[in-house]
Amino acid sequence: MRWSQTFIPTLRDDPADAEAISHKLLVRGGFIRQLAAGSYTMLTLGNRTWLKIANIIREEMNAIGGQEMILPTLHPAEIWKQSGRYDLMGDNLFKLKDRKGMDQVLGMTEEEIFGMLASELSSYRQLPQIWYQMHTKFRDEPRPKSGLLRVREFTMKDSYTLDIDRTGLDTGFEKHRAAYRRIFARMGMKAIDVEASSGAMGGSESVEFIVRSDAGEDWIVTCENCDYRANREKATSALGVVEDGEPGELDRFPTPGLRTIKALAEKHPEIASPERQIKSLVYYLEGEPVVVLLRGDHDLEEQKMLDAMGVGEDIRAAQPEEIEGLLGAQPGSLGAVGVKDLRVVADEALRGRVNMTTGANEDDWHYSGVSVERDIDVSVWADLRTVKAGDRCINCDGSLDLWKGIEVGHIFKLGTKYSEAFGAYVQDEEGNSHPVIMGSYGIGVERAMAAVVESSHDDNGMVWPVPVAPFEVVLTVLRADDETTMTAAMSLYEALAGEGLDVILDDRSERPGVKFADAELVGIPYRITVGPRGVESGVIELTTRDGLETVEVPLGTVVERTTHIVKAAREA
User: For 298-389, where are the alpha helices, taking DSSP H only?
Assistant: First the structure.
């Protein structure tokens, strides 16, 4: 392929709206163009890399026995209502009506459809199964940003295991965990697997694969001493012992103008240090108000509350006027003592605590001497608090670190939620009927592409690992108008292509500096520079994009040497 005949619209300046490195470089390098917020066109280079990523995923899925299918994107809404996720997904689900007035949705995942297909299985002898597809998904993302990292239209590899029992599910889950490790390693990414929340997907367990990056939106907790690692939405930490003494009497006392944890602690340090206060929050979950209680020095992790309450993404903090209507006071004077008509969700750090201080649900008044389980009617106990850097590990008491990362894959143990909803039952050896046990496993192709760039770039542009590079070698011709030079370049091009390498010939009538800058920007792993002087001397330059190290190679051996380097990098 000749650069002069290929559409590679490189840009010198970053797009004005881009913040993430991958967004800037993929646009500047001519890989993508934005059609609308969260919707991108894959141009020639982008499509070549996209296909290589998709093929790596496909090869590893096939290696564990995956069977590829193609499912519809347009789904009857009734299917999503049957699973309970039509409302659970909230506004993130694209909803529309067809010309007959029937409700339809654009699929953002395929559990419902694969659950329906599983209903055609009848016997344990047909299990286990691994089904997958590589297909377009839609999500009505409220804030598309960071280029390909958060979009409204994307390609996902979603696969599903179907088994007769939990042992089979565990086996399929571990097969996918191992396959995902291989997939991301082949892409050149250092992805680690961490415990995660299953969220609206449901199920008993899930694991995310995370690439460390400041462009990510996931906060990850890891231990400095052991292998504990979890998404902050799932992570927990050890609590230090707090001595409460013997339970005291409930006492109501005035606190004029004291509306914060800090102010109350400073005014009454003997009874209201932050760890001795109960923080009271009011939220609406699926339209229902709940009171949420945490220790005064702890913060709420909203996803933990959603998981504990078994609800989807329909959550919002109550407004001050709503709070006053429910509890009779403004924020800062709130508590749950004596509250009977609202559900109360309390963090486990409050279980068994006595001699605590909390708001009295009257402005400028608080209670001291609160015994949580004596004075408060707790509906649900759960781990609700946000883990912070420096907290102690629950496994080894080491210090916990907190860092940002990009989620590049997610695997779930779904269980029987979807098989039961769609009648997917099989008979065991004794003829007894059981719901099929499912697992779900996803990788976003475009997000993986962006994550590679976030992991592998420098000041000059992208640095693609060989297995996912749009081209493996660029032949940069310094004098395309010189017949001898072009003849030598074409000979090298045909020899490299004949060895099975992806090579592009830069035959443009541009200055050498422009060609070098473009090759570095788009991140082609190896550059062979062909000019009149090199052809005449019989020695030309071979440049490695990672580190921009250049060596002189005899013209007669450059094909052999480059082929050896590239093929070794493919297998690394």
Answer: 302-309, 320-327, 372-375
The amino acid present at 319, given as its one-letter code, is: Q
User: How does pLDDT run across 325-337, given as a tens digit for each residue?
Assistant: 999 999 999 999 9
Cβ contact 467:568 at 8 Å: no
Count CA atoms closer than 13 A to 514's CA, side-chain side: 12
pLDDT digits (tens, 9 = 90+) for 92-128: 999 999 999 999 999 999 999 999 999 999 999 999 9
- The answer to whether the Cα torsion of 373, 377, 380, 384 is positive or negative is negative
In this structure, the strands spanning 437-444 and 251-254 are unpaired
* Separation of alpha carbons 204 and 35, rounded Å: 39
Average pLDDT (348-357) is 96
Q: What is the pLDDT of residues 232-259, one digit of tens each?
A: 999 999 998 888 989 999 999 999 999 9
User: How is residue 116 written in tokens?
Assistant: 């329906």
CB of 281 closer than 8 Å to CB of 317 = yes
Place of tokens 């001397």: 537
User: Is the model's pTM score more than 0.85?
Assistant: yes
State the amino acid at position 520 in one-letter form.
Answer: E
Domains of the chain as residue ranges with CATH:
3-235+402-454 (3.30.930.10), 251-382 (3.90.960.10), 471-571 (3.40.50.800)
Q: Can you tell me the distance from the alpha carbon of 518 to that of 419, in angstroms, rounded to the nearest whole number? A: 52
DSSP per position, 10-68: --SS--TT--SHHHHHHHHTTSEEEEETTEEEE-HHHHHHHHHHHHHHHHHHHHTT-EE
Half-sphere exposure (CA, 13 Å, Cβ side) for 284? 12
The 8-class DSSP code of residue 417 comes to H
Q: Which residue has the tokens 């991108």?
A: 40
Tell me, what amino acid is at 466? V
User: How far from 548 is each of 38, 153, 463, 476, 544, CA to CA, in Å?
Assistant: 34, 36, 10, 15, 5
Least Cα distance to 217 among 164, 272, 110, 145 occurs for 145
